[in-house]
Design brief:
heterodimer; A: 295 residues; alpha/beta; five-stranded parallel beta sheet; two-stranded antiparallel sheet; 38% helix; B: 919 residues; seven-stranded mixed beta sheet; 26 helices; flat
């Protein structure tokens, strides 16, 4: 980046170009989030919160200020209005923005990165609406609450990385927080292992969602083919692609098996999502997986 | 050329290339298809996997076969295959093609051209230089490559004449100019001509002569002759033994000036006969329009017989001095005129005042000195428009003072009083004879008989312009016939009487000839050379070899005798010639010409037209190779997975569907059948583009609503131009009012009234309910008043609560459009409409209201864009949408009302009807 001042017009144009990418993603994510009705997120016991929980008779030790006079005036007994105990969770997101995610086998299908962003953002919106604090791993965007955080998240998620397979970010995670990692997990395995190990060390529990294109699942290729990664760094040529299918599927299952085992060791959950499916199923899975209270 | 299995090859050695094919097969098999590059992020999982089999995916056998076929087709195509090759002893050395190229060949010219093509191709294959000689248009012989001539072939056309002595002489000169020997192919037209043997002898001196004879005998049409009130059409042909029926078309211009067939006749030719005749009787009016006769279906100048004055009869009005002595016929000034003209013209006799409106060609005044003033004026007018006034002198003219002092407008010269007598008993001189006619005279060339003499005449005053007006004079120089022009016509004065009293001229044949030259009469017999001596004839229309009429204006004139006697050629082409208001046709065939087939000696080889069956297949094979290669490209793509068949098919299918659907859209407005077969809502085109588009979208929106909600399935709405379009197809016309549209023409009002009376409905929409509620307070309403004034509109009233419009489909009490609240006016209920006890509605007008007038701007509420979304907002929020819905409901009710009339009104009687039926 040169230090010469950018003319206002150019700056504005760039800014608008950048901004123009935000609304669609945001809208998509909001729509998706809107499709899930928020269930009650309370702790189902009395505590500090806004929502009414129950009236109970005044007990010893209760301050007089706690008497609910509207209720108490109906009778002789004095009542205390209790509110539901509500606490905020901290959730860390990591969405793989590497080049390998920018792949869609068909023009009609979204690229993996699009689906991953939408899912991540929709989950973030849901959680922020539920009052949680959401942020990214790695200290770029520490967890905060409020609608402004959604915009910040959108902006961050709109970036892309040029690396083929970007390693999971595991720094700056708040202890005992929740985490959501979305990626295709096709990159080096030990990076992921390192990340999960560190997370488990800090008591962070979470969810892995593997987003794959249907082609990556089925491997429907035939004939002489030269496969290459997004940046072209990795290449593999075969004379008869159809003959590779079985072994490829085997390897994919193997990799998934490894992931699964790793998750179980770290107390995480793992899910698979295909871009051929609707985003809603993915979101539902995330929602339920995250909602499950940490045992 | 070697022949293999019926197919000849011009380069058979190339076929050895087919031996390479098996090698190619092996090569193609060994080369694997190019790899496809694919982006595949999961390549990490693939790294390290080995192929089981080092053998590549093989090119499929059918693809190999396709490629083999393509290569084989190329090899065979280049080897020059020819189907059904002609094995002819072709000879060698230069070849001369002699063409008769006369009119007789025109009718089979296309066949001849094909034959020439074949023969030129043959000569080209044999490498023989070719020269072409047309006997009707000889040119020096140039021996060139055959394909050069093949390119010039379209330029070789038959001429409208046959070879004559001149062209034969030229041809012989050209032939003798060639030093070498050559073979000859002579394409005869099937017609013998003089000196044919000379040409043949000259050709046989140089080499072999082959004569190509035409397939069918020559037929021609002789000039038409008018005889006994009918036209005699004669056809002649070369002698053949078969019978022939020849339809003849008589063609000319109809009163509107278009060329059409005015009559037809059929000429039957008996077996063995060479001539046949048909008689065609036509009214003289029709006869005057005839331009030519044509043998149907024969393109040849000989099959056309042009008509001329000989078929046309002029109308001549004869006016004599009124005299009481009817008995003395031979003394009547008109007697000799009548005799001279009766055969060749239609004579009109009577009062000049009665005859002039009939517009005769010629008016003859025989010894008439004075005319009433009114007739004189009319006569002058008629002459100025091109009439010919022919006057004869006589005792009355001599005695009168007509043209004494100054030149009378209807007299060419001034006359001296009294006239003169020659050679009488009391005079010294002898009767005078005529001097030979001068060159400027129209009579120049006529033979003057000795016995013609003049004993008495009126004498012209010697005026300065006398000399130029004299066209015939006596031996002593006294003018005998004078002429002057007046406007486009002319006045001719014979200074003698029209009877034999003053001269013997009317008794001689010269008199008739003079009348002919003056175009008073037209000869029925064809003129001979002597008759036309001294005249020059301009070609007006000439025939080309195919019998097409061409303009003759650029050709030089022809001397009269030549026109009749000389042989046809470049300088004298068949056609219509004119001179001095007369027209004469020179046809290809004369009245007595005999058509004979040529007789060829045994020394020449005679053959007919051989329609070559030869087909050069090289192009076919190469095209097949191209197609195979194209298929191969597609197949290669398909095999390597680059061709998305589904997508390609979808594209093709979409294109096909669009293509198929297109005509349907194109005909939506224009085709009356389409309009009549479906319910089509019409909107009146106002000339305001936006308004028209809005009306169209509005009606389309309404049509869609009708389609979805009711059993009415309207077609696309159509714009109606009330000036030009037929209105009967539209049950409803939506007429948005804008002050900018022009008022319809009276004819359009007539159409609109007829439309309203025959059950049509017009929905007038002033679109201004937001501006004014009632009456003429807005511009649009005032304009509507002006617009509708000439229309037959019954008394109106605001829609009453029990009008059928309120319940035709939906129950409505309000008819909002984009605006709401303004009243809607329909035909008023009859005064005697009363509510019957027990019925909810009055029995209102039985018919459909012819007009509905309102200002709620319905089209704007109905309008949808191409995607079916509303084009304009209505009101606000839900209430607005409700208003739009009500607008649609009004539209549905309206269309229901238009289509079903008072059906809903009658529904109230259903219980009573059922009751009566006893159910």
């Amino acid at each position: 980046m040169s230090l010469a001042p950018i003319p206002t017009g150019v700056l504005r144009q760039r800014a608008e170009e950048e901004a123009s990418a935000l609304p669609p993603l945001l809208v998509q994510a909001e729509q998706l989030a809107g499709s899930i009705l928020l269930g009650d997120h309370g702790r189902r016991r009395s505590g500090v919160g806004d929502d009414f929980w129950q009236y109970r008779p005044l007990q010893q030790g209760d301050s007089r200020r706690m008497i609910d006079h509207r209720r108490s005036a109906k009778g002789d007994q004095q009542f205390v209005r209790e509110r539901e105990w509500q606490i905020a969770q901290t959730v860390h997101l990591w969405c793989d923005l590497g080049a390998s995610m920018r792949f869609g086998s068909d023009d009609n299908q979204p690229q993996k990165i699009e689906r991953a962003r939408v899912l991540a953002l929709a989950a973030a919106i849901l959680m922020i609406r539920a009052g949680e604090r959401v942020g990214l791993t790695g200290g770029m965007l520490p967890p905060r609450r409020g609608n402004a955080q959604i915009l910040r998240l959108t902006e961050m998620l709109n970036r892309t990385h040029e690396v083929d397979y970007s390693p999971p970010e595991h720094r700056a995670m708040v202890p005992h927080a929740r985490a959501l990692f979305i990626s295709d997990f096709l990159g080096p395995f030990d990076e992921l292992q390192l990340a999960l190990t560190k997370a488990a060390d800090r008591g962070v529990q979470g969810v892995l969602l593997q987003v794959l294109d249907p082609v990556e699942e089925d491997f429907p290729f035939v004939g002489r083919t030269r496969f290459h990664s997004a940046s072209g760094g990795l290449e593999h040529e075969t004379l008869k692609a159809s003959a590779l299918r079985d072994r490829y599927v085997e390897r994919l299952a193997e990799r998934r098996d490894l992931l699964d085992r790793l998750c179980r060791d770290a107390g995480w959950r793992m899910g698979v999502h295909h871009t051929g499916e609707s985003a809603q199923t993915g979101l539902m899975w995330i929602y339920h997986a995250l909602q499950r209270s940490p045992a | 050329m070697s022949v293999i299995a019926g197919i000849g090859f011009s380069a058979p050695w190339l076929l050895l290339g087919l031996l390479v094919l098996p090698v190619l097969w092996l090569l193609l098999r060994a080369v694997p298809p190019a790899p496809i590059k694919r982006l595949f992020p999961a390549v990490t999982l693939l790294v390290g996997l080995r192929d089981d089999d080092s053998q590549t995916d093989r090119t499929p056998w059918w693809l190999l076969l396709l490629r083999m076929l393509a290569v084989a087709a190329v090899i065979i195509g280049l080897a020059g295959p020819v189907l059904n090759p002609q094995e002819r002893s072709s000879g060698s050395g230069p070849l001369l093609m002699v063409l008769d190229a006369s009119w007789a060949g025109a009718s089979h010219w296309t066949a001849l051209e094909r034959q020439l093509e074949t023969d030129l191709a043959e000569a080209g294959r044999a490498g023989r230089p070719v020269a072409v000689l047309r006997l009707t248009q000889p040119a020096p012989l140039t021996f060139q490559a055959a394909d050069v001539w093949a390119q010039q072939l379209p330029g070789l056309q038959p001429e409208a004449w046959a070879a004559n002595a001149d062209t034969i002489a030229q041809s012989l000169t050209h032939l003798s100019a060639v030093p070498d020997a050559f073979d000859t192919q002579w394409y005869s037209d099937g017609l013998a001509f003089e000196q044919q043997t000379d040409v043949l002898a000259a050709l046989e001196d140089r080499g072999n002569v082959t004569v190509v004879a035409p397939p069918a005998p020559v037929v021609g049409l002789r000039p038409p002759v008018f005889d006994d009130g009918a036209i005699e059409l004669r056809a002649t042909r070369v002698e053949t033994s078969s019978a022939q029926t020849l339809p003849v078309l008589a063609q000319g211009k109809d009163p509107s000036g278009t060329l059409r067939t005015l009559a037809t006749a059929t000429i039957e030719l008996e077996p063995g006969a060479t001539d046949g005749m048909a008689r065609l009787s036509l009214p003289s009016e029709l006869r005057g329009r005839l331009q030519w006769f044509a043998l149907q279906g024969r393109r040849s100048a000989g099959a056309i017989a042009l008509s001329d004055d000989s078929l046309r009869r002029r109308e001549v009005a004869l006016i004599g001095a009124t005299s009481g002595n009817e008995g003395l016929a031979l003394l009547s000034p008109l007697h000799y005129l009548r005799k001279a003209l009766v055969d060749t013209t239609d004579l009109l006799e009577g009062n000049l005042g009665d005859l002039l409106p009939a517009n005769p060609d010629v008016v003859v005044l025989a010894d008439v000195a004075h005319l009433p003033q009114s007739q004189e004026t009319a006569l002058i007018e008629w002459i100025e428009e091109g009439g010919l006034l022919l006057r004869f002198a006589g005792p009355r003219l001599a005695a009168s003072d007509t043209a004494r002092g100054d030149v009378h407008p209807l007299m060419p010269v001034r006359l001296r009083a009294g006239g003169r007598s020659l050679g009488g008993a009391m005079s010294w001189g002898a009767p005078k004879t005529l001097a030979p006619f001068s060159e400027n005279s129209p009579f120049y060339g006529l033979n003057i008989p000795d016995e013609v003499s003049v004993v008495s005449q009126v004498v012209a005053q010697p005026d300065p312009d006398l000399a130029e007006r004299v066209i015939a004079e006596l031996g002593d120089g006294t003018p005998l016939v004078t002429r002057k022009s007046l406007g486009q016509g002319q006045i001719v004065l014979f200074h003698v009487t029209a009877n034999a009293e003053w001269s013997s001229l009317p008794l001689s044949g010269l008199f008739v000839e003079m009348l002919e030259r003056l175009a008073v009469s037209s000869a029925t017999r064809s003129p001979d050379g002597a008759d036309l001596e001294g005249t020059i004839w301009k070609p007006v229309q000439v025939l080309d070899g195919f019998g097409q009429i061409q303009d003759g204006g650029t050709l030089p004139g022809v001397a009269g005798p030549d026109l009749v006697t000389a042989a046809l050629g470049q300088d004298l082409q068949p056609g219509v010639y004119s001179s001095n208001g007369r027209s004469l046709a020179r046809n290809v065939l004369s009245a007595d010409q005999v058509l004979t087939a040529p007789v060829w000696p045994g020394s020449v080889t005679l053959r007919g037209f051989e329609h070559s069956q030869e087909r050069v297949l090289g192009g076919l094979f190469l095209a097949a190779a191209l197609i195979a290669l194209a298929l191969d490209a597609l197949a290669t793509l398909a095999v390597s997975g680059l061709l998305r068949i589904g997508r390609a098919a979808a594209v093709i299918l979409a294109a096909a569907v669009t293509f198929a659907a297109d005509p349907g859209q194109a005909q939506e407005t224009d085709n009356p059948t389409a309009l009549a077969s479906e319910v089509t809502l019409g909107y009146v085109l106002t000339g305001d583009t936006q308004l028209d588009a809005l009306a169209r979208d509005g009606l389309r929106g309404l049509s869609e609503v009708l389609y979805f909600r009711t059993s009415i399935e309207p077609a696309n709405p159509a714009g109606v131009d009330i000036e030009a379009d037929e209105l009967a197809f539209y049950p409803l016309l939506y007429w948005p009012i804008s002050t900018r549209q022009p008022l319809p023409s009276p004819a359009a009002y007539e159409k609109l009234n007829a439309y309203l009376q025959s059950g049509g409905m017009i929905l007038f929409d002033t679109r201004d309910a937001d501006l004014s509620r009632v009456g003429a307070t807005s511009d649009n309403a005032r304009f509507l008043q002006r617009l509708a004034r000439p229309l037959d509109i019954p008394p109106l009233e605001p829609v009453p609560d029990d009008h059928v419009l309120t319940r035709a489909f939906y129950l409505l009490q309000d008819f909002p459009g984009r605006q709401r609240g303004a009243p809607v006016w329909v035909e008023a209920a009859p005064a005697d409409a009363e509510q019957v006890e027990g019925l909810p509605f009055r029995n209102l007008n039985d018919g459909v209201s012819p007009v509905v007038i309102g200002g709620n701007d319905w089209a704007s509420a109905w309008a949808v864009d191409d995607n079916g979304r509303a084009r304009l907002p209505v009101g606000r929020g839900f209430a607005g949408e409700r208003q739009r819905e009500l607008a649609y409901r009004f539209g549905v009710n309206l269309i229901m009302h238009v289509l079903t009339g008072n059906y809903k009104s009658d529904q109230v009687h259903v219980p009573a009807l059922l009751d009566r039926l006893g159910q």
